[in-house]
């Protein structure tokens, strides 16, 4: 999908982020408003989940230069 300007692109990305949080109900609404197809929204929601999972660092786990020395799961910058 090609966006005519930066504002439309940012609106589409915002709608996608909201739909990832709220589930299929808002994804359907975004598709109905022509901002993004349901398939595109699902793809971007999946990508967001994968990025968050890659940044997850469990208690005691080491990944690259990061080491989680807390008893909690944390998310490190840059995944």
Structure write-up:
The protein has 79 residues and is mainly alpha-helical. 54% of the residues lie in helices and 10% in strands. The protein contains three helices and four strands; from the N terminus they run H-H-H-E-E-E-E. The protein has a two-stranded antiparallel sheet. The protein has a two-stranded antiparallel sheet with strand order 2-3. A hairpin with a 2-residue loop joins strand 2 (62-63) and strand 3. The mean pLDDT is 75.
Q: How many beta strands in the DSSP annotation?
A: 4
Helix content: 40-55%
Give the overall average pLDDT: 75
Helix/strand structural class: mainly alpha
Give the distance, in angstroms, between the N- and C-terminal Cα atoms.
Answer: 27 Å
Give the spatial strand order of the biggest sheet: 1-4
Shape: elongated
* Rg estimate, integer Å: 16 Å
Oligomer type: single chain
Question: What fraction of residues sit in β-strands?
Answer: 5-15%
């Amino acid at each position: 999908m090609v966006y005519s300007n930066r504002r439309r692109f940012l609106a589409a990305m915002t709608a996608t982020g909201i739909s990832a949080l709220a589930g299929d109900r808002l994804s359907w609404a975004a598709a109905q408003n022509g901002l993004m197809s349901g398939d595109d929204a699902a793809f971007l929601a999946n990508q967001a989940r994968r990025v968050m999972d890659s940044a997850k660092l469990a208690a005691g786990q080491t990944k690259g230069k990061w080491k989680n020395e807390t008893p909690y799961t944390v998310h490190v910058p840059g995944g």
